[in-house]
Fold this sequence. Notes:
- 2 copies of one chain form a homodimer.
- The first copy, chain A, is mainly alpha-helical.
- The first copy, chain A, is built from 26 helices and 8 strands.
- In chain A, the strands form 2 sheets. Chain A has a 6-stranded mixed β-sheet.
- At the A-B interface, helix 13, helix 18, helix 20, helix 21 and helix 22 of A face helix 8, helix 13, helix 18, helix 20 and helix 21 of B.
Amino acid sequence: MSLTRWLPAAGWLRGYGREDAAADGMAALIVTIMLIPQSLAYALLAGVPPQVGLYASILPLVAYALFGSSRTLAVGPVAVVSLMTAAAAGQVAGGDADLYLAATVMLALVSGVMLVAMGLLRLGWVANLLSHSVISGFITASGILIAASQFKHLLGIPLHGDTLWELAASAAGHLDAFNPATALVGAAAVLFLLWARGPLKRLLARTPLPAWLAELLAKAGPVAAVIGTTLAAGPGGLAERGVAIVGQVPGGLPSPTLPAFDAGLLGQLWLPALLISLIGFVESVSVAQTLAAKRRQRIDSNAELIGLGAANLASGVSGGIPVTGGFSRSVVNFDAGARTPLAGVFTAGGIALTALFFTPWFHYLPKATLAATIIVAVLTLVDPGAFVRAWRYSKADFAAMLITLIGVLAAGVEAGVIAGVAAALGLHLWRTSQPHMAELGQMPGTEHFRNVRRHRVVTSPRVLSMRVDESLYFANARRTEDAIYDAAINRAGRRHVVLLCSAINHIDASALDSLETLNRRLADAGVTLHLSEVKGPVMDQLQRSDFLERLTGQVFLSHYQALETLDPETTRRASCKLKVTS
Amino acid sequence: MSLTRWLPAAGWLRGYGREDAAADGMAALIVTIMLIPQSLAYALLAGVPPQVGLYASILPLVAYALFGSSRTLAVGPVAVVSLMTAAAAGQVAGGDADLYLAATVMLALVSGVMLVAMGLLRLGWVANLLSHSVISGFITASGILIAASQFKHLLGIPLHGDTLWELAASAAGHLDAFNPATALVGAAAVLFLLWARGPLKRLLARTPLPAWLAELLAKAGPVAAVIGTTLAAGPGGLAERGVAIVGQVPGGLPSPTLPAFDAGLLGQLWLPALLISLIGFVESVSVAQTLAAKRRQRIDSNAELIGLGAANLASGVSGGIPVTGGFSRSVVNFDAGARTPLAGVFTAGGIALTALFFTPWFHYLPKATLAATIIVAVLTLVDPGAFVRAWRYSKADFAAMLITLIGVLAAGVEAGVIAGVAAALGLHLWRTSQPHMAELGQMPGTEHFRNVRRHRVVTSPRVLSMRVDESLYFANARRTEDAIYDAAINRAGRRHVVLLCSAINHIDASALDSLETLNRRLADAGVTLHLSEVKGPVMDQLQRSDFLERLTGQVFLSHYQALETLDPETTRRASCKLKVTS
């Protein structure tokens, strides 16, 4: 039990059979084919040599297979994390290529340590501080930034910058470097890839092929594009026409090494590493949960933290870049029938073989092709619909989303995410600081009490019924106190106030003070304060104070009981209404 | 109407009669006698010349009388605000006395502008971000700091520092400066004042004197101490024995002037000014509300902001220090029968006469006496009981209180308050991020559903009833989703989950996503999700999304209705129980 808790692999390895191996092997083959161009492309996006992308797809997969809790999650380099890596490393490295590589490795190691630590301390909930609005604003902005940055390779124009404006400015400065041949290859690749994931996919879906195979062939688009454009650039001689190619990719496996510890570098990189960890984790765990649910498997978010942390540590020691669970490759892995994380180990083997023997084949691979695969991939990240839905559903969420989007595009990924999180927290506090309150009346013929503004109800001349739709805490305590006091004294003849507490989940010390003040102020005004339907936990807490002794009125189990006691006539009349009318 | 809104004085001045004048005049006389030593003492505490304390008790009272909404609040220099003033001015001035005075005036003006602006923008609620725990931790810490700082005058030892440690260190360095005569005067004054507010007060209470007069005579202790020790220092010749005296106090009224605007100074002082404004406002408004309630009068917190802002602007232009409503003097004013703010105007007149004609009388007043009055006054601020109550009532509030206390004592007033506010917000978010959840069962013989852990209830084998005691938002969305999912699938035979939403006051976009995921995950697991007792505002919001179409189950008006529909047998049996047993 405890072993499987710390090493989930111990669980599924028991009773691992031949069919499992067959299924995992098949899935691994498919994912490998898909992962090769992705690894090269995201290495390009992260600004590191292509082989580093391959390295990040070998040991990390094995590490995740041992410690992760998802059966089918496929980890490796992904677009958003690679973008954040490039931004952070570019900041610290300036122009120094060695320092840049050291920074990416440091980022992988630090976020690995952070993720493992969060997992051991069971801090998975910290990731929840990233609201979905902030994440979705961030993802859309990243998609735009990534696509924009790739025009560098697509048109042969050198671009630099971490914000949209910086990219636009540097593009304007280098228009002369435009290379028609490169643009041709890029445009062809983009169009082909769009065709492959659109019309071709629908075409294949109508064929008698099994769904997963049709899906796979559509997903194989990038591979086809790689082969086609490589042939065009090499044998086809486009490379001589100035089409930038990947060039010499050193073969062989990464030699595990620990970089020299650099406190200064750590000081500059801990924050980006933290954001990379959190965002990578949130993305990964949501994919894992979606897939796990389909087979009624469970995801332990703390095991996930340790699994992803181990993967990043493995990536770091093998000279790679930060990794996390990728959406599309995980879905392919799942659909292709992967049963256990061994599929990931087999995939790692496939990538290792590629790194050992096939790197020469990438020599003539045009960078424009990789850029095209990136752009087509990240276009799916851009989701304007999310903004429309947020606007319709909740202005506060829309605001947080927009602030994140603008922040990321205008000030870079870090500033944008931080601004978004701050905005989300602030808006939440602001909203809970002005709770919805309702004066209640009795629904005729029932024992239910509802908002006088929404329902035709019976109210008592002597008793004010109020409901506060919020936990009472310091940010809303005084406002609530004043609102109830004003409502109580604004009409003569009011002798009692009954506060319906069914929606009050906490009462903190400030709110307790306010309740005591309200009790005293109402007493001075000759009005008695009662409570009804106080929750168990809240009642336990109130009993640890002397409020209940000081309370001028009583605490009633149900609101109906309270009104029945304080104003029998009205209440009885209201309860009878139905019998009269029916 | 609109005139009295902006100028409350216009309201009560109408129909102001002779008895009003008599009552206000009497109260003013008493408050004046009380305010003179306080003004001198808090000037000493704030580190400014004594006459500045008098200036801060003239125009500000008139300004508040015009714009404030409380009939009986008495404004002027108070201990806590004077401490904050000294800390902030000391920071910027170093040793420069002129710069120090300029800083205190700037603090008064800036917090005046801030308060008026907050009042006009109706931002009174911002003050609610200071939770009562933070304030009470801050007040206790201030009391300790103030008392500690006054040993300087009480023992004749020069002390410097804004934290307890700094004060202790500087005391250790100057023990040789100890002056026996000064210590004698100080000790005598402290003992006398303690006797006056303790035994003497009880003694007077037993006499046939009217309560307010007895109260007044007890409150006159400081005046007696001033007179006694002044005679001892002057005619008694203690001044020659090295007892520090107030010395030459320039007579006359303040000449209203606006200091030259200094952006640099403003940059250093805006934060302390903001804290002074907020804390002064919170203290003042709670006193005003307590007193107003006794006469069924209302306090408009935005009018209070403008009133206090005007008072601080008036203090600034007359070369004074930041002011706010004082607790003890307001109570005396109220008990002595003040009816309208004109009592404040009369008091201002009294202080003005003092500043014009009586300042020579203060020449031989020992600083030790003023220090003694300060120490005895602030001892009432130190409230260990608050910590005990907080510990018993809520550990989170206790933590915020303790963090503020330690922060203020160890790092100064600003750092302490900011740390406390941050802690309070963080703890609130942390608590709402892990909501209380309960599996529910039907109370036999009723239509009520309660926590299975707290009550003997009937549960359905096919339907899981869950209640979440928190609004659903990004910080708790995923946790709630997982908890409900786990509870739903952890027992075979479960076909339905009904989520009782009576305690859910908001559902933000993240929580909506989680509900949709939960709905999908449960569907994949063959379980249907239903909602019951969804609040009006929440339902409105849900209807603006497409969640309700996607929901596999239904939305029931009452939880009973849900169970009656989904598992009639169990529900009917449970409802009948009573009839069977009775």
